[in-house]
Amino acid sequence: MRLVLLSNSTNHGGGYLDHAAAAIAGLFLGARRIAFVPFALQNQAGYVERARERLRAFGLDTAGVEEGPAGRRAIEEADGVFVGGGNTFRLLDRLQRSEMMALLGARTRAGMPYLGSSAGTVIAAPTLQTTNDMPIVQPASFASLGLVPFQINCHYLDPEPDSTHMGETRETRLREFLEENTVPVVGLREGSWLEVETAPLAAVGAPPVLRVTLAGPRPARVFRRGAEPVEAPPGPLPAAFLKV
Fold it and tell me: Could you give phi then psi for residue 18, rounded to 5 degrees?
């Protein structure tokens, strides 16, 4: 597998996908046609056009994925896939109803490059349970693609030391998740992303080993059950951070 999982698609003061342009170009090197999944937004047609215009700068043609058989064919015929951000519940619901989850997972595991941003990154995890979004629709299941063995929280926010806000912080909510679950969580701050690839098998029949690298200027915050959160600097994420 080869994945680039963005916390966000646009940084303050920059353009769409600009901050990770080099990583995206490397991911899709040699590809010609990208399937773009716009299901996380209501205005799917407008979202497809935005992605098509931006990916054209990488020398890529973009096929918008529709809900239904035509969308499944677009994924089957593509050289790579880009799953855009928006509402994670809506994205997962539409993928499930369009019977695309198994296809998308199988093609990615077989080597099709996968680019996700925000909601598209969250669904690379086992479930969507660490999304920030409101459940505006009800998917049949919280189960996501499970391309990585840990949960992801995009747009991770640190508490403001001078804030008078007395509600829950993002860290509080992720600690609550770990009260009921054992899967580690990687909190991705804006401007950061994960680069994931499957390492060569050590032996015939051995399970694949994932190499996970944090890229971008900011550290990630890693949460594990029974331990205090850890700041992970840019670079390879230690395997110990990601074990249940």
Answer: -65, -40
